[in-house]
Amino acid sequence: MRSSQIRRQWRIVLCHARTMHPEREQLLFTVRNLARVHREHEKFYSESPFHDVIRWQRSSRALKALAERWSVATPSGETSFSPFAGAPDLNDDRATETLGILFMEGGGEPGEIANLKRDLGVLAEANRTTGQWLAAAMSAAWDMLEGLLGYGELADLLAERHRIVSNDWQCASMTELVARNLDRAAAILGRVDFTPAALRADLIANRLAPRYLFSAAEMLDHAADLMASSAVLTHENERRWRIFYERVDQILAATEK
């Protein structure tokens, strides 16, 4: 959603509030509602990102395990009667245990690696969309909060309320960076031919595959760190939401007496 669309929505909200409450109270009723619902909303988003953090860290560990294995392994000269036999020179138990990645003698690219590359692309697009929407929303929110400057009762909390927007705006930037890192990790993995024959040829030649894997893993590490930092910023907002809501509620209660 574009910033202009969000600003139009704010104008609609304020116009609706104007028909329900005296002019002085119209903005206060709106910001009290926002403080209540978005405090609850951000409780979820201060916790849910850690699910992705753990997921990306696990993927990173699996890729590093394979990279470490391929940095020292020599191509196996063994033959097997079964195409489903594991490739002893390519597999690493840590990668198999963590993500289920298993190279088989008669197989091509393991399905788990194909799934990882696909999932990274999907998650990158989801984070890009979220980051862009949040940035537009915070731009509109910052403009809307200028209307609070005339309320002396909120003078000591203006920085607290604007800090919420600042934190969320920073989260938006981090989320877009997460998307870029996930996209690039998938692109780096796309440079590797994960068929057993190609990997064994690489082990004999210049061992580029493990170097690509280390880089992809480090991109995932950075994405995880950014996401964790974003969750921390969101969590920091909780107290600010609470005290701001309580103050606005007190002001409105006083006007109703």
Secondary-structure blueprint of this entry?
Layout: H1 3-20, H2 26-45, H3 49-72, H4 93-99, H5 111-145, H6 158-189, H7 196-204, H8 208-255
Helix pairs in contact: 1-2, 1-5, 2-8, 3-4, 3-8, 5-6, 6-8
Summarize the structure.
With 257 residues, the chain is an all-alpha fold. It has eight helices and no strands. It has helices at 3-20, 26-45, 49-72, 93-99, 111-145, 158-189, 196-204, 208-255.
Structural class: mainly alpha
Low-confidence regions? 12-20
Shape: rod-shaped
Sheet-strand content, in percent, reads under 5%
The main sheet comes to: none
Helix content: over 70%
Mean pLDDT across all residues, rounded? 90
Walk me through this protein's architecture:
It is a single chain. The protein has 257 residues and is an all-alpha fold. The chain has one domain. It is 75% helix and 0% strand. Helix 3 (49-72) runs antiparallel to helix 8. The longest helix has 48 residues, at 208-255. The two termini are 40 Å apart. 30% of the residues are buried. Mean pLDDT is 90; it is low at 12-20.
Summarize this structure as a short list of keywords or feature phrases.
0% strand, single chain, 257 residues, mainly alpha, 8 helices
